[in-house]
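User: Thanks for the earlier help. One more: Transposase. Can you show the sequence and predicted structure together?

Assistant: Of course, both are below.
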Amino acid sequence: MDIEVWREGFEAGKRLQPARPPYDNGTLEAWSWHRGYIEGAAQRMGRCYSDRPPRDVEWPSLPSQRSAGRAVRGRPVSR
């Protein structure tokens, strides 16, 4: 987790800015920004939140950004 980027997201969440990080999708920075945004928005809305990024957390791997067929009624689309 990038703590500086988490704080950027937290501040954006407190202002309820649109949830679009200034980082490429699928990157650690985008993931960290979104995690901070969620906490900042929760604070703004009076919900339970944490004003500190988590420490020593093992984050799941991010999904790949390659194109995948869209599911139609539970079945993949033929290519």
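User: Great, one quick takeaway?

Assistant: Residues 28-44 form the longest helix (17 residues).
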